[in-house]
Backbone:
């Protein structure tokens, strides 16, 4: 009799990191249930990418509608200009205005609800604490705190089935993430990272996310397959 695969909920944004995480989870033999959000972000291109990525092995891909733009407070969900820079050295380490308040808390809460319904005890998220923009909800402390909260908050948790929040990229550089993803067959042309892409899908090359992505590919010795405005 074939052994039943363990189920996992994977947060899939359409970006480089979450695509890599999904490939890692598939390689570990999980049955992947991918979860994305239409949350009032500036563009839907990332959801198109997430849909393409989910075809690489997820048994199911759900896109949930929520509206974080009702609160604003971020250049990704309000009519605020996305900061642009000419060089990565111009990033000052401050939390940028592209941070969406409580976004990962909200996303993980939805993932937790779906995991309960699926009877899954593993949730994966592609946060990173090294080559990232300084968002507070991308730190190990946050991931551990959410897991600590989640277990006594669920039926499975109080019945002794421990839920684990996995953040397998948390201590990796962007170059290490890319190299690992390539070894698993990730097609990074089907990922997008830009906060302010053109209508025809080209990345701006100057927002924080583009600069971090470009540095990752450069450090990995590989050309980024995504098209950029200045290409």
Residues:
């Amino acid at each position: 009799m074939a052994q039943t695969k363990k189920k996992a909920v994977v947060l899939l944004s359409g970006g480089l990191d979450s695509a890599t995480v999904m490939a890692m989870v598939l390689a570990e033999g999980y049955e992947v249930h991918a979860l994305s959000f239409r949350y009032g972000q500036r563009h839907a291109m990332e959801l198109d990418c997430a849909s393409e990525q989910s075809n690489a092995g997820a048994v199911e891909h759900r896109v949930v509608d929520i509206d974080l733009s009702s609160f604003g407070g971020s250049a990704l969900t309000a009519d605020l200009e996305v900061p642009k820079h000419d060089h990565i050295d111009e990033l000052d380490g401050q939390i940028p205005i592209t941070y969406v308040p409580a976004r990962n808390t909200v996303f993980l809460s939805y993932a937790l609800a779906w995991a309960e319904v699926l009877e899954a005890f593993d949730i994966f998220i592609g946060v990173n604490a090294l080559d990232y923009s300084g968002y507070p909800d991308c730190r190990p402390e946050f991931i551990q705190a959410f897991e600590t909260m989640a277990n006594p908050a669920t039926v499975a948790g109080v019945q002794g089935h421990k839920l684990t929040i996995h953040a397998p990229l948390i201590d990796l550089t962007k170059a290490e993430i890319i190299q690992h993803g390539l070894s698993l067959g990730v097609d990074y042309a089907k990922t997008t990272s830009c906060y302010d892409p053109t209508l025809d899908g080209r990345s701006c090359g100057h927002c924080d996310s583009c600069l971090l992505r470009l540095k990752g590919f450069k450090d990995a010795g590989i050309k980024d397959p995504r098209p950029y405005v200045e290409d």
